Every structure is written in structure tokens, then in C-alpha cells.
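Morning. Coffee machine broken again, so started the prediction first thing and wrote up yesterday's gels while waiting. Chain of 300 residues, entered below exactly as on the submission form.
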Amino acid sequence: MSAYHLDHLEYLETEAIHIMREVAAEFERPALLFSGGKDSICLLRLAEKAFRPSEIPMPFLNVDTGHHFPELNEFRDRRAKELNGKLIVRKVEDAIKAGIAVPTPGEISRNKLQIPTLLNAIEEFQFDCAIGGARRDEEKARAKERFFSFRDGFGQWDPKNQRPEIWNLYNARVNMGENMRVFPLSNWTEMDVWEYIRKEKLEVPNIYFSHERECVLRHGQWLPVTDLLPPKEKERVETKIVRVRTIGDIISTGMVESPANSHDDIIAEIAAARVTERGSRADDKASEAAMEDRKKEGYF
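Came back before lunch.
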């Protein structure tokens, strides 16, 4: 009798489902971060496979900067409703009005303001664990992360003081006020995500596929023209055939010129790419240590 061998995607899926079930078993009040982006879409499918036919035993949480692509928010709301999940949205704008988040004068990006908004939501609902879709291949600060990433009572992360994870055993102990961030997709790559989306026939927001959009070329990347990001003097607005590889704020998400309008096209494009997906994120370009600094303060 021959042994059954898992292929690459099956192994990653099995590993992620195991971690999802560990969270459900070890924590009292977990939440699943769901933005409507491709990675969190995979998380939802994994949660379905981990817990169906029961309901997914955790709410979905999203921090809305107010600078999201409208296509993303529409998909987020609709998908949560289809899954009969409880969607909790906490807005940066509300956090600013409440004095929880304080904008830096002259800075239009709200990425840093997500940190106090998220930490306040974790405190508000007493979440002891939050599941996120971060992957180690995305960015070098995220490559330092373990599956179970401990955060102290201030929501902060210390990359030099992480818990060992030997033989797939995870230390989930937290004291009051502390929490864990858990990343079931840690070992996945951008290619794995798209191959899984194709295999599972998962719907994704249409901005991941080729479409026509007005853009301006700024700092070597095409940024979408919006009311939040009007063209500067002498910048020329051009209509381009573009798509997104990774979605952040609409003011910092670079568009890539692309004719890819199917899963197969995107997979072929990724195979030939020489720039990482976060290479098109202006917020990451601002500082080489930007992501690690934000993670230490409480970002995902």
C-alpha cells in the first residue's frame, strides 16, 4: 500500500488549517483580520475548511483608513455577508476624532494611524489573538516573524525576543492585556497564493486584474489619480492598462502596467517578475526600516 504524499499546496493548506485550529483551541477571543485583499481571501477559505460545517468561530476585523479602494471595501462587506460572519470595522477617521490617533502635520498617509486604531480595537473587544495574512516572502521585517507572534501589554513586538516553535508546538500563553498575532500563511509565497486562488476558484476584487485607470508617474511608479491624490503641477495624467499586485492605501499603492486578466496570466507574470509585490508600495519605499518600525509599534 503506497503512502499518500501531499503536493506543495496541499502541505501549505494543511499547515495553515492546523494553525487555525490551534488558535480556536488555545484562545478565548480570537479575531481574523479581513481586508478583502488576496491573502485574507485565502485565510477565509482556510477558516471555512478548518471549521465547517460549524460557523467560523471568530469575527472578522478590518481597520479602514478612509483611503481604501472602494472596490476593496465593497468586496469585504459582501464576502463577510456571504459567509454569515460578524464583520467589525474600525475607522481611522473615528479614531482621529476621538483623539486615539493623532495625525502628523503635513502627512497625508494614514498607515501609521492604523496602529493606535488597531490596538484600540483589540482593547475594546478584549481580543487575545488576531490572525493576519502576512507572509515571510513579502518583506524582510516580516521574514523575521514566527507563526505565533507575541505582543506585550502595549501591543508591541520585539523581534529579538520571540518564542521558539519546535516540532509545530506553539506557546500561546498570554497574560491579561497581552495578545498574539498569528500568521498561518507565513510559509506561502505570492505565487502560492495565486495558485491556491486558482485551485479553489476564489473570487478576488477586480482591481487585481487588468483594467484602465488614470495614473501619474511619481517616484518611478504609477499611482492612481483620485481626489486624495490629485496630480501635482507639471505631472501628466495618463490612462494606462494596469492592475495591483498588493493593495494598501489608494494614495500609496503603485499600479503595474499589465495585460493580465486571468489567474493564469497573473501566475505567468509573477513567475517572470524581478520586483517583489511590495516594491510597488510607496509606504514601504519611504524608509528601509519602515515596516519593522511599524510592526514594533503594533502594526501587522
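The chain has a mean pLDDT of 88. Going to sketch it on the whiteboard this afternoon.
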